[in-house]
Amino acid sequence: MQHEQIAPSDLSAPSDLSAPATGQTAHQAAAQPEPVTLPLTRAAGCPFDPPAELAELREQQPLRPMRYPDGHVGWLATGHAVTRAIAADPRFSSRYELLRLPLPGGPPGPLPPAQIGDLTGIDAPEHTRYRRLLAGKFTVRRMRLLTERVEQITADHLDAMERQGPVVDLVQAFAHPVPALMICELLGVPQSDRAGFQEHAAVLSSPDAGLEAQMAALTALTECVGELVPAKRAHPTDDLLSDLTTSELTDEELAGIGGFLLAAGLDTTANMLGLGTFALLSHPEQAAALRADPGLADQAVEELLRYLSIAHTGVRAALEDVELDGQLIKAGDTVTVSVSAANRDPLKFPDPDTLDLQRKATGHLAFGHGAHQCLGQQLARVEMRVAFPALFRRFPTLRLAVPPEDVPLRDAMNIHGVYQLPVTWDKE
Description:
Layout: H1 14-18, H2 52-60, E1 63-67, E2 73-77, H3 80-88, E3 92-93, H4 126-135, H5 140-144, H6 147-164, E4 168-169, H7 170-175, H8 177-187, H9 194-204, H10 211-234, H11 240-244, H12 251-282, H13 284-292, H14 297-308, E5 313-318, E6 322-324, E7 327-329, E8 334-338, H15 339-342, H16 377-394, E9 399-400, E10 422-424
Parallel strand pairs: 2-8
Antiparallel strand pairs: 1-2, 3-5, 4-10, 5-8, 6-7, 9-10
């Protein structure tokens, strides 16, 4: 799911970061390093690691000037504490129209405002109103009640894989359809409409689709949900969309929120399952540990979330001058937060570049932090806690069917993952 909050825990509070780290005031910190551009290229043979330059930048200065593709000079946050502080601070906005894109290839000029129901691109009070209506629908208890259904859907797709293969593309056979079915069932999308929904979602995650096509796909998803709303109002069923029709939300808001939830739920968990399986196959001792101890599933999922950080980059805009980590961020400056670098910060996670399922990865930022923390994170956790152990129990000899370097990666996407993952196993 997309980032959409965490209670303050063991990290430095924002107030701790307001004091200049170097002993200088922000205004005295005039000798700034030259602005950097956002490192995007992962090293060959390291599909799970963020670009190596991010670690160098984090070690030098975890919050530093960055030049954006449109020439704007803003900031890049790479440390865990400063990234967490920015995400929790309401002086930083998520409104699209205030942001500069850190990735090349975006449209010239300002971004359009978020569509109705898109929680990622709005601030309080509008965002708070939506969150209050939705948060109770995605609680830990409610999502755990779905476990039995997730287990059934997972088993059905593993059965189908067994009949079809070996060899199969794990993305198409397992990683994509399991979360897709769950979010469609949760929202109450009829069986007859699900293929259409998934087609639009595929455009959203396609490397060949430009921003215009992706916006059109999001609009199409929203329109499809919009057509469901009157039916849910007239004949409510046992699903989230029907439940929300009893709230104060208008039809237009319901359509927008439904489209947003579908788009988010169809892509992110799928990429965690695909890339997570690739990572476990590349670390067979970790896969063996998970297979041997199903009780390891909860912390294994948290470690995979930290290690992979598939939603690797976030953006905020300062609404006022903010002193943070010894720097003065001026009103209007865009700040890019590198979640993948933050989750590899050795000041937070010892030996951070090692995948260790025995690690307690508490405090990772894979689901974001603050008001925009991922709304559907508990659903994603349930899906992964069921899917990973079930996959490796069913196919104990599961392995890649191609050399690792031939697995196509989603390098250019804002959600990291794999386009395909050909796998094979020994038949009994």
